[in-house]
Amino acid sequence: MPPTVARSPLRPRAGFLPGEIDSFVGRRKELEEVRRLFTRSPLVTIVGPGGVGKTRLALRTAASVSRSFRDGVWLCELGQVHDPALVTQAVADALGVAESSTELTPFSLAQLMSDAQLLVVLDNCEHLLEASALAAHDLLRAAPALRILATSREPLGVPGETTLRLSPLGVPDNPDETTATSVTRYESVQLFIDRATTATTDFELTDENSRDVARICSQVDGVPLAIELAAARVRTLAPDQLVDRLADLFAVLTNGSRIAPSRHKTLRQCIDWSFDQCSEKEQLLWSRLSVFVGSFDLEAAEGICAGGTVEREEVLDLVESLVDKSIVTREMRRSRPSFKLLESIRAYGAEQLLASAETTSIRSRHASWYHQSIRTFEADLLSQEQAVMAARIDADLSNIREALDFSLQPAGESAEALRSVNGLYLYWLSRGLMTEARYWLGRALGQEQVGTPKERIVGLYTAMTCAGLQGNLEAARRSANAALSLVPVLEGAERDAYAATIPGVLAIFEGDPEGALAHFPAAIDGHHRSGDLSREVELLVAQGFTLAMAGDQGGTDASHQRVLEITQPRGEIWWRATSLWALGLSAWRHGDPEGARRDLEESLRLRRSMADSMGSVWALAALALAHADLGDLEGSAVLLGVVTSLTRAAGAPPSIFPELEDALLACEARIARMLSATAADRARQRGSSMDVAEATAFALSEPAPAQASAPSAWSILTRRERQVASLVADGLSNREIAASLVISERTAEGHVENVLMKLACTSRTQIAAWVADHVESSGSNT
Predict the structure, then answer these.
(1) Taking every annotated instance into account, which residue ranges of this chain make up the domain HTH luxR-type (predicted)?
(2) CA pair distance 421, 530, nearest whole angstrom
(3) Are residues 408 and 389 part of one domain?
(4) pLDDT tens string 519-532
(5) 693-730 burial by CB neighbour count: b if 16+ within 10 A, else e?
(6) 670 with 628: CB under 8 angstroms?
(7) Mean pLDDT of all residues in 599-606
(8) Taking residues 376-404, what's their average pLDDT?
(9) Per-residue b/e over 448-487, b at no fewer than 16 CB within 10 Å?
(10) Are residues 149 and 37 part of one domain?
(11) Would you say residue 496 lies in a domain?
């Protein structure tokens, strides 16, 4: 005889949800998305790491759609259930039903629910995954009108399940450049302010403390639990003091609410809960992955973290499992997946790694991996892979910095670090990272006996070049003298090359073109004979610029043409773009604006492929001159607006050549004379509103790059529901809507109920207000 289940009189039929005791901040888009997902699937699981706000979002969603469920919305909290066999009983208890036989199964409970129209919130399923999945599956199979909203740190894996991966709240991109006004648009900051003012009524966001509040939110990765724990500390710590103490997240982020679940009372307990749900191999990989700073790819994880009980071929499945468990986050970068650990999860893993005594060996493997990636970059320095490898360095830069730091410590490989900094020479130049290059070189070269004499010479030459480009002649001369003192140790062509290269390049920075030109032929010849083609190309470019400074335009063009002869067949990009820029300027000087435009546009395309923003600005500046001479004064004014805006933002000149700056000023004056003030201002303003990508597209007469636009707020509704919502806003009754759309009154009523549910409205008046807001902002309701 099957068990019979009777409804308990202790619970009201309308359902049961706990009331909110503090405010719900942000998550409007996610709230709408969960409601939208329910139109596609009867089971929606909100998935995310611990403390990210899954339960709060689920409860707010459930409350907002309660009108749509005849038998109410019900919360089943599984956090305190530890035996999988008790999940069905927990669901029954939450629904207010009591069994009258000795056995209760998911199937028997599902039979009771067969005609139910209700929403069940299954909260905190990850530690009872199989039992939760079975209960959800049987309930949905037996009750077509039932809906389940689950929260878990990994998906349930039930057929028909739709998941929403909940990310942390948005944080300021650059905390050091925020104000009290600008920072409040970030939901993480809004939450901090709300909880801080609850903790102490005298807290107030000001321009003085806004940067520290932004830093706090960034340091905890926008995780709501961590933000709430941090905000509670403002009772005793000012925001700047809190920033200093967040170096130890787990010591500071304690003392949560006394009534919160134990796993949410401190940040450590929250992550302990996740760690306990992992297998031994997952725990081991988690600890090893903590060696990564920022993002990493699967190949790096396999190369660095395999070993011992974790085989290389197991890493893929283990990473996927950690992604499912919301330990590792996955994102797409340049059409390839990359992975990342939130800072709190990384810090926890680092503690586990330290406890396992593997820290030094894993960090050593990590450093070796990224040093090797730099060797690959060096090998492709003059090839068509240059842009791809530079982008790879961009993605790996945080890990490269970590590798350099480890290698330059007493137990590290300082010589390997010096080789890597030298190997990134072109990268430092193309990205404008002169200060950083000098920092690492200072640490490496400051250690005696590090590197071979040639490696030290190359490092000192790099330091000289970076200092010279920054206008620090004293530092450039010190590095040059130190390098020249080592040159006699070299032999043959290498000795000849560097003996001429170092004083020649230094002479450019000292404003002595004749002195530079006296050294360059020997420098170029020496690098050619020694087989250092990359340095030969660099010196040909330098010679070309120096000849231009000396007024020898024929020699300038010959040097840059030689660069193109070497680089073009190989597919090299950066030096080729530089020489095309110089040739474009040369054509402009010779009264050939069309030839100038052609070379400068090609230079700009190459700069774009290298993601070289500053080089692109230089090309845009020169193109402004060519456009003016071609009679396109408005286009020239737009480009000048771009250049002025972008160089001001970067704190850089439009060119390192005074001659070009003078030409741009003359071009501005010409535009002012020949265009009306209104037209000139309009063009400049148009340019000043563009970023590098938009300005490049404009200069190349290409369509503007597609902007990632947010989906229309109306997209949450079907076309018919949008029509119904508009008619409700016009004041029509269900009968009038039915007549207007030629549908039955019952169908109209169903559409209105769907609109109420999706928009989280409780009345027709609220629908009307929502429609008014969104028609005004979008200009359309169809």
Answers:
(1) 710-775
(2) 21
(3) yes
(4) 999 999 999 999 99
(5) ebbbebbeeeeeeeeeeeeebbebbeeebbbbbbbbbe
(6) yes
(7) 96
(8) 90
(9) eebbeebbbbbbbbbbbbbbbbeebeebbbebbebbbeeb
(10) yes
(11) no
Banded model confidence at residue 425, pLDDT cuts 50, 70, 90:
very high
650 and 729 belong to one structural domain: no
Is 179 in contact with 207 (CB distance < 8 Å)?
yes
| Same domain membership, residue 16 and residue 135 | yes
Please give the structure tokens belonging to residue 562.
Answer: 């030689």
Of the candidates 128, 123, 122, the one whose C-alpha atom is nearest the C-alpha of residue 148 is 122
Domains of the chain: total: 5
| 142 and 117 in a common domain | yes
279, two tokens: 């297998």
Nearest to 619 by CA among 628, 608, 629: 608
Boundary residue ending a domain (145, 165, 185): 165
For residue 299, what pLDDT is reported? 94
- Report whether 286 contacts 272 (CB < 8 A): no
CATH code for the domain in which residue 772 is found: 1.10.10.10
| Two structure tokens written together for 340 | 């990342």
Residue 411, domain extent = 370-489
Q: Give yes or no for a contact between 122 and 151, defined as CB atoms under 8 angstroms apart.
A: yes
Task: Tell the residue number behind the tokens 């395309």, with chain if given.
Answer: 605
pTM: 0.74
Within this chain, do residues 11 and 30 fall inside the same structural domain, yes or no? yes
The last residue of one of the domains, among 237, 268, 299, is 268
Q: What share of the chain is helix, strand, coil (3-state, %, to 5)?
A: 65, 5, 30
CB 224 within 8 A of CB 187: no
Positive or negative: CA dihedral 712, 718, 722, 728: negative
Alpha-carbon distance values, 153 to 41, 121, 124, 163, 164 (Å): 19, 15, 8, 11, 11
- Which residue carries 């020489």 as its tokens? 579
pLDDT tens, residue by residue, 460-496: 999 999 999 888 999 999 999 999 999 999 999 999 9
CB 109 within 8 A of CB 139: yes
Least confident of 66-70, 370-374, 768-772: 768-772
Structure tokens of 312?
A: 């290389």
